[in-house]
From TrEMBL:
Species name: Algibacter mikhailovii
Gene3D superfamilies: HAD superfamily/HAD-like, Putative phosphatase, domain 2
Coiled coil residues, start to end: none
Name assigned to this protein: Noncanonical pyrimidine nucleotidase, YjjG family protein
Annotated GO MF terms: 5'-nucleotidase activity
């Protein structure tokens, strides 16, 4: 069923269009090789992913700073796999991670196709909690920046999703009407509840098929957006 009267479509970036987990794993593989760190990659990544999400939640809530986030998520992962490593090497790895992360730019399946499709009839925008210096490179290097009229990130606004200020800032930048706007993202808390709180329409992109309210449209493939837009 089509959602009528939509003019502006807002996307989250990481885990929604840009395949963060895949690109992150490739980045670790590279920086471990560069720094002669011998750890089982899959074991490391399987611990890192939930730890990273935990600390991103704290970062969203303003409970830790960016520099702390970058260090503690690595430090805790090495502890989880019982790998002894000196602090200065963790700091070096955290810097290398940011440096090389945007050299890998895998997107979720059908990203270009759905952006081509939507750009014919809608104004497209990005709202992201990611770091300013990294997000622009992701959009540019993956060749999708051309689709978006505006890009709003949390460092630009001074608050993070789900804070209503970032949605209002993005809507104002886009000169978009709330009732004619829709937010598409993978974080139920940050993207979906945050956007609903300011009155936006929403679509929850979730490959894990999390059980949520039946009132919220939920998809597990970007191509499914064609049913609604």
């Amino acid at each position: 069923m089509k959602i009528n009267n939509i003019k502006d479509v807002f996307f989250d970036l990481d885990h929604t269009l840009w395949d963060f987990d895949k690109n992150s794993a490739l980045t670790f593989e590279k920086i471990f090789s560069l720094n002669n760190i011998e750890v089982p990659l899959q074991e490391f990544v399987s611990h890192y992913e939930p730890i990273n999400l935990k600390y991103w939640k704290l970062y969203r809530e303003g409970l830790i700073e960016k520099e702390d986030l970058r260090f503690v998520r690595l430090n805790e992962t090495f502890q989880a796999i019982n790998y002894k490593i000196e602090e200065h090497i963790i700091y070096k790895l955290s810097e290398d991670y940011i440096t090389y992360l945007t050299s890998f730019n895998y997107l979720f399946e059908n990203t270009h196709d759905i952006l081509d499709y939507l750009s014919l009839n809608y104004n497209l925008h990005i709202i992201t909690n990611g770091f300013d210096e990294v997000q622009h490179k992701k959009l540019t290097n993956s060749n999708i920046i051309k689709y978006f009229k505006t890009v709003t990130n949390s460092e630009m606004v001074g608050v993070k999703k789900p804070n209503p200020k970032i949605f209002k800032y993005a809507l104002n930048s886009a000169k978009a009407n709330i009732s004619q706007s829709i937010m598409i993202g993978d974080s139920y808390e940050a993207d979906i509840l945050g956007a609903m709180d300011v009155g936006m329409n929403v679509v929850f992109f979730d490959t894990r098929k999390t059980k949520i309210s039946e009132d919220v449209i939920q998809i597990d493939a970007l191509s499914a957006l064609k049913r609604y837009l």
